[in-house]
Amino acid sequence: MEYKDKIKAAADIIKNSESLVVTAGAGIGVDSGLPDFRGNQGFWKAYPPYERLGLSFIEAANPAHFERDPSFGWGFYGHRLEMYRNITPHKGFYLMLDWIKQFGMDYFVVTSNVDGHFQKAGFPEDKVYEIHGSIHYLQCLNACTSNIWENKEKIDVDTESMRARNFPKCINCHTVARPNILMFGDFSWLPYRSHEQSNRFDDFLDCQKKSKIAVIEIGAGTAIPSIRHTSERIHRNLNAEIIRINPREPEVKRPNIGIAEGSLKTLSDIDEVLND
């Protein structure tokens, strides 16, 4: 099927659906200007200091840094926090919200991203499930309390050394706080906020058993396939139709549609057909 035919088929799926699930991985943020951490070269291009230190993304995104050297641990996450705060989500986020209103669809978002950009674009907090947590929330490094609280601090980072000049403290014991994010090799993440989101998503799916559902999956790869598995589970259990948008790994079984293009172009082209 040619690209333009896939776009038309995707538009038909959306306008004929009663409910929409958006499943999104890191690829959706590339068109907003967020760095692509795919492979060491992608990570080091965004963060040259870690190349000098010989650290991969997996090694940099390790909770052990907060225990051994919190200034270094917060260097990476503090820089990301300020970047996510300063960058505006691209137009594709807003187009999907427009379709939800235009076609009167019930909806939910499931994302592995920790940047909070769906909420920033206007998706309500109670309609988003962040499976790996959010950089905009904090927890105690030592889990002295089960509290998870909003991170309102500005982290000042020396971008040459990637060390933070200041970092948040636990609101209870006043030792180091860490992002409420599931990191690599992480045994101290507090999942309670994400569990509440997961329960709301399950309740949403329970109400959709007789609905015609579209799944728009964006930028979700196979290296960490949690998001792809979510899309496929909804397809399998609720007979939903998947629109998989991924420039590198668009493969999906028919009758689902795989589109080998970036998120902004694809969503913009679908919108053009929907409003033709």
TrEMBL record:
Instruction: Quote the EC number.
Output: 2.3.1.286
Domain (Deacetylase sirtuin-type): give its ranges. Answer: 1-276
Give the keywords, sorted. Answer: NAD, Transferase
Query: What Gene Ontology terms describe what this protein does at the molecular function level?
Result: histone deacetylase activity, NAD-dependent; NAD+ binding
Q: What Gene3D superfamilies does the record point to? A: SIR2/SIRT2 'Small Domain, TPP-binding domain
The EC category is: transferase
Q: Name one Pfam family in it.
A: SIR2
Name the record gives this protein: protein acetyllysine N-acetyltransferase
